[in-house]
Backbone:
DNA sequence: TAGATTGTTAATCGATTAACAATC
DNA sequence: TAGATTGTTAATCGATTAACAATC
């Protein structure tokens, strides 16, 4: 149970909530009286309508029979449950192409993520500006984390460098790591790691392509 | 059933296979007689050992009682099933930071992915070299796909541009799209889309962080 | 041989889907 | 009122885990 007295959401559930959120914010105008039915969403997202109703019930959204759910209410509840309104500052390590792309992407703001420090191991990169941030030298990592009280680290570094940097992040107080390096990280159990394994996406795509007869 | 007479693998199964693959190739030297037991893998990957044995059985890998599985055999079987040895050429659209990162990443090769054409809507970018490729103007898209017989497209463009480009890809003969644009794509049912929704990863990380008491 | 580990069947668990009464 | 849609319970399905005989 969490603060709201609801059981914690599982992976699949969170994914579906994000799915609803994107679909509704993209396709259904947010004027106050816009409604959406579970059957509509289910059809468009290619899933079962009971699932939609259960998911909404689980986050405390109630609909009205013969009418459906208020789109704005659904969106608000999802933002609430997932904590999109809570600003979460993070330090990003590795200002290469991928790191630069994440640092410059403005879309993260709607989920509460603000990358508020950017470091790179190459001293030559220090001072360069990406998005709204200046690249800092790696040896300032701990100072930056302490100064801003950062608790989230984003790793966009080569595989070989990842474990060392993860260790430094944890030592400096970081408690959640978003890992884009193609390697597993060993961390204490009180640290949460989300490993973004991009090539898995390609492997799946290729497998399905193969299954479908090339 | 697929060509090998085995039922197709589901999402979870594919993810686990990639997990084993990475773990074994990273942590277990590939000399011919290296063995690994289901209990070992299960412990290290934090899962049930029966699961490991079932997954291996499903791809035709047999172990030996009291010994375990031959690491090299497991790796080979996974590569075989997932088609890593089949070279798959793709066109990448959008040579921005993210596109550039993917185009320059050499690690994809081990999975069979070769990005063999790179286009960008900005004519000013044409001619620029990223990795081993020269950025081509967008109007050459169809010609490149036809000339190289490409069947896979990678979209690293802003959300607004994604649907139009997906349409062009499909019209030109592409049958699988790896979509990094933060928007859903509408495509004919014979086209496979893999939507890489990166912010979902952050949302999950943030949710678990919140659940754990900040 | 003794005992560790596989391979597989059976049991459990959770997630998905079906059914349907309640409601608007 | 009639009928569409929710909310929820029950049934089904599939995935995970337990158990254990077979094997090396």
Residues:
């Amino acid at each position: 149970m969490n603060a709201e007295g609801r059981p914690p959401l599982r992976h699949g559930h969170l994914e579906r909530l994000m799915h609803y959120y994107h679909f509704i914010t993209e396709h259904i105008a947010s004027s106050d009286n816009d409604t959406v039915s579970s059957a509509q969403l289910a059809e468009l997202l290619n899933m079962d309508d009971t699932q939609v109703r259960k998911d909404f019930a689980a986050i405390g959204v109630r609909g009205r029979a013969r009418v459906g759910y208020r789109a704005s209410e659904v969106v608000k509840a999802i933002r609430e449950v997932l904590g999109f309104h809570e600003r979460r500052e993070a330090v990003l390590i590795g200002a290469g192409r991928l790191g630069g792309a994440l640092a410059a992407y403005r879309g993260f703001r709607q989920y509460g993520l603000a990358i508020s420090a950017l470091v790179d191991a190459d001293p030559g990169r220090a001072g360069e500006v990406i998005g709204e941030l200046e690249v800092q030298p790696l040896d300032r990592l701990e100072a930056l984390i302490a100064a801003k009280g950062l608790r989230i680290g984003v790793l966009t570094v080569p595989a070989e460098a990842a474990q060392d940097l993860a260790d430094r992040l944890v030592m400096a107080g970081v408690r959640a790591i978003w890992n884009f390096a193609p390697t597993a990280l060993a961390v204490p159990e009180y640290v949460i790691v989300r490993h973004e394994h991009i090539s898995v996406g390609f492997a799946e795509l290729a497998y399905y392509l193969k299954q479908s007869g090339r």
User: Anything to note?
Assistant: Chain B is about 45% helix and 15% strand.
